[in-house]
Amino acid sequence: MHTNNMRLLIIWSWKTLALGLFHVLWAIACGILIYIFWPVDEVVQAVHRNEFTPKFWHEYSEEQIHIIEEICAELMKHYPIKFILGHEEISPGRKIDPGPAFPLDKLRSRLLDSRRDADGPEIITGQELTVMVNELNIRALPDLNAEKVARPLAKGQKVTVLEKKEGWARVTTGITGWVAERYLK
What is the pLDDT of residues 118-156, one digit of tens each? Predict the structure, then answer.
């Protein structure tokens, strides 16, 4: 699939039952590392979810985001997809994509929330739940850019839900903070 300066690389792994959808520059997909200087109006300064200092990131166009969402929605019609993760969430510290310029949380919410409402259990205040990902950031506020209040919670760690707000859960486990509720079960 091609749109302007965008190419998508789709990788399916039967062994792990995982699907990889990669948005790549053609030069990088060919194994050539090049430096591209983007116009000022095409970059945003933001803090990566696994880092603490701001950097410049190339913004994704509405067309790119729309096409990725369409592909994901079509795949979800045919496969029981329950999670949509960025490399940065699978391998924190080693991978940085898609980065803060891509609206991964909003896209994930649009695609998965309606399915979860129908399929998944309702998270109830006071309920004890388990962290389902290797590392789950715990933040001061229910916002992706909010300050992290502690090291990430580990997979299997138990938390108690104190409050819910727009896809976030305020939890306590010795410390109190906000986590993305989709990673709790």
Answer: 444 556 667 889 999 999 999 999 988 899 999 999 999
The answer to whether residues 113 and 60 touch, using CB atoms and an 8 Å cutoff, is no
SS3 content of the chain, % helix, strand, coil (to 5): 25, 30, 45
| pTM of the predicted model over 0.70 | no
The CA angle 23-103-109, to the nearest 5 degrees, is 110
Q: What is the DSSP track for 119-183?
A: HSPPP-TT-EEEB-SSEE--BSSSSTTSPB-SSPEETT-EEEEEEEETTEEEEESSSEEEEEGGG
Q: Which two tokens stand for residue 48?
A: 């990566």
Q: By the 8 A CB rule, do 72 and 85 touch?
A: no
